[in-house]
Structure formats: C-alpha cells, structure tokens
Design goal:
Elements (H helix, E strand, L loop, with lengths): L1 H18 L5 H11 L6 H4 L14 H12 L8 E3 L2 E3 L6 H22 L7 H5 L51 H12 L2 H5 L3 E10 L4 E9 L3 E8 L2 E7 L4 E5 L2 E5 L1 H11 L16 E7 L2 E9 L5 E7 L5 E10 L2 E15 L2 E11 L6 E11 L18
Antiparallel strand pairs: 1-2, 3-4, 3-15, 4-5, 5-6, 6-7, 7-8, 9-10, 10-11, 11-12, 12-13, 13-14, 14-15
C-alpha cells in the first residue's frame, strides 16, 4: 500500500512537470549528451531482471504500467505483496514466469515483423485489457458498410449506352499552411515573440487532481534559463525537487538525494522555462502538417519526430492558433507507450497566454487521468535563487 501511494505521489510530480513544460528541449538534450553519464539499464539498478535486459531503467515504470493496462490488471497480479510490503524481485508467483515467456514471444515476433517491414506487435495487440486474448470472433458480426447505390438508388441499366452528364467542377482544396506558419501563428496567439523574449521568471500555484480522487497542492518557481524549485504537498508530507543550473535534487521524508542521468534530463525538461513556447526546436526535422477535427473544432496537426527520438503530435486550433492537445509516444522494446495532454482555459498573464487547465491521459490503470489547475500565475517577479540549491542532508539523531 505504501509503495502504491509513493508511486501515486511520484506520478503527481511527473504530471506537474508534464503540465508545466516551458523549456527548450533541444538545448536540454544537447546538454545531456555532453554533461550526463550514460543512462543505466534496468538490470544495473533492479534485481532479478531476466528478459528486459538492456532497457533504460527510466522506462521501467512506464513499461510496467503498459503491461498492467494491456492485461487489465494491477501490480499484484505478477508481483508479491506481503502485508503491504512489496517484493518485486520474488519469483514466487507463476504469473511472473508466464509474463516472462510472453515478453519473449513479443520480442521474437517483432523480429519477424521487422523482417517483413510490418508494424511491431505488443501485449495490447492481443490482450486488449483482458487476462486471456480473445481468439474467437464475437457473434453477431457487425454489418458491413453498404455498397454504393444501396437503398434502392437507381444504377446504370446493363447494356445501356452511357449517357454523358455534366459534372460540376471540383472545388479546389485549400492549401495547408506550413509548420513554420502554424508555429508563427501560435507565437502571435500567445502574445508575440517580444513578450516571450522578455520572460525571465515565473511562479505558479495550483492543484493536481487524480482520477482516484487524490488531490495535491503544488508551488513552482522557475528562472531562466532552466532553474526551478517544485514543492508538492500531500496528506503524507511534502516532496521537493530543484535544479540550480548544475545539480538536480529531490527531498522527501526519506531524505535528500541527487538526481542524475536520464532522470535529471526528464526533470529539467519538465520544469524549465520555455518548451511549450518554443515548439519548432523540439523537432529533429521539419514535421508534417494535416487538417482534422478535434471535437467540433478544425485543427492543424503537426506531426514528427523530436530531438529525443519520440513521436510528437501537436493539435492547433485552426482559428485561434492556440495549442489544444499534445500527444507523444515512447518506443520501448515491448511496445509503444502513449501519453496525451489537453490544454484549456487560456488566460493572459503579463502579456502572455497560458493554459490554466490541463488534462492528462496516460497508461496508469489505477489513475488513467489527472487534471492540473492553476490558481495563481505570475511572470517576471523576483525569485529567491537559494531555493534552487540542493539542501543539506538532515542530521541523524
């Protein structure tokens, strides 16, 4: 129970970071390549890893959530919990052995799929939220779509000479705007490049409400280019995270620890000062553009690969130019893991517009959605730089 609670709190921290991404991701990635040590693999950090070897340790929790969502189960289906104490390394449950065999099956199948140049399969391909895959079609089958001229419409008479009929000239399809034009309109809708260039600091307060009813208060302080301090208050205590430009850290009831490697890169990306303001730089090559609907709104979808090798789709309102949705996918050795954020209630603060409400959807069986709401937002205010520094470890009694 305690481990589950800690996972929920950690998820809340990730959601706050996810909702408050205002950092230049391309710069973060370049800095990480130069300054951070190689990311550790899961077997270097966790015990008794047999088939997920070589996977980055940072992907472990998302992959476990992916398994749970695919099976419609929770952690205790495969893992041992003795009176609230988790023993994740234990092989006592036969379901865990079966899971390893199924993971091997997916990995072997995908070698064949790659050879045939087909899309990879995953646990969800067959399970679809069930413990056992459904291999028999459910009856009755759905009716197929009606063919042309169905419903008594008169078709051409067999053997009759075709009759020429005037056909209306097709309406020309309006040309789509380029990705650069969409980004430029978005910048203007937010308040303009001058207002973005003036942004030096930001403070925010608000709440994150999860689907399971849990609610957390947060406070965030940011300073250019990438310094931040995040305080999350939960019924069980406070959690703090910070970065002073050189050192990342986290403080909980367990003590103070330094954040490094891939985790530091993710935390910096989530809590800096400029990413949703600088979108173009996040793509590794010019993205594609298409037009679609999001609910009853016309949207332009900008779709491409980011500098950290993720697929990212941005949904811009065709009228206002504002960003309405952001979806990303993370490729792992067992499948593609998606997440989604819907941005709402844009309000102006000191010349710049920000979404005061954001709704996230992710692969977390017990908590599939969360909502972040700003209650206070201030720009270019003096900040206490000492907040960003790593606090000393508490003295042992």
């Amino acid at each position: 129970m305690k481990r589950t609670l800690l996972k929920s709190i950690a998820l809340a921290l990730s959601l706050v970071a996810l909702f408050l991404i205002f950092d230049n991701r391309s710069e973060v990635v370049r800095a990480t390549k130069v300054q951070s040590p190689p990311a550790k693999t899961v077997e270097q950090v966790q015990k008794n890893i047999k088939v997920l070897t070589g996977m980055p340790e940072s992907q472990l929790i998302p992959v476990m959530n992916f398994f749970a969502a695919s099976m419609g189960r929770r952690c205790n289906y495969c893992h041992v919990n003795n009176q609230g104490q988790w023993d994740y390394a234990s092989d006592a449950k036969p379901e865990k052995t079966s899971a390893r065999e199924m993971i091997k099956l997916v990995l072997d199948n995908n070698k064949t799929m790659e050879r045939l140049k087909l899309d990879p399969v995953s646990c969800y391909t067959c399970h679809r939220g069930r413990t056992n895959p459904q291999s028999i079609p459910a009856l009755p089958l759905a009716l197929p779509s009606p063919p042309p001229n169905a419903g008594g419409a008169a078709g051409p008479t067999p053997g009759a000479a075709p009759q020429a009929s005037p056909s209306p000239s097709p309406s020309p399809t309006p040309a789509l705007p380029s990705a650069d034009e969409i980004f430029s309109k978005y910048t203007t809708a937010l308040g303009g490049q001058t207002a973005i260039d003036k942004l030096k600091s930001r403070t925010a307060k608000g709440t994150v409400t999860q689907a399971n009813g849990s609610s957390f208060q947060f406070e965030l302080t940011q300073a250019a280019p990438d310094k931040f301090y995040l305080l999350v208050t939960t019924p069980q205590g406070t959690i703090e995270r910070g970065f002073n430009g050189q050192v990342g850290w986290e403080k909980t009831a367990r003590g103070v620890r330094e954040i490094t490697g891939t985790e530091l890169s993710n935390v910096k990306t989530g809590n800096g000062l400029f990413t949703l303001l600088k979108l173009k730089e996040q793509y590794s090559r010019p993205p594609r553009v298409r037009k679609d609907k999001l609910g009853d709104r016309d949207v332009y979808i900008v779709d491409g690969t980011t500098t950290n090798n993720q697929r990212m789709r941005l949904y811009f309102d065709a009228v206002s130019g504002l960003l309405l949705r952001r979806t990303t996918t993370m490729s792992t050795i067992v499948g593609i893991i998606p997440d989604q954020i819907d941005l709402e209630d844009y309000r102006e603060a000191d010349g710049l517009k920000f979404p005061f409400t954001a709704r996230a959807a992710m692969l977390e069986v017990g908590n599939p959605t969360s909502t972040r709401t700003f209650t206070e937002l201030k720009l270019n205010v003096p900040v206490d730089e000492s907040k960003f520094n790593m606090p000393p470890a508490p003295t042992s009694p």
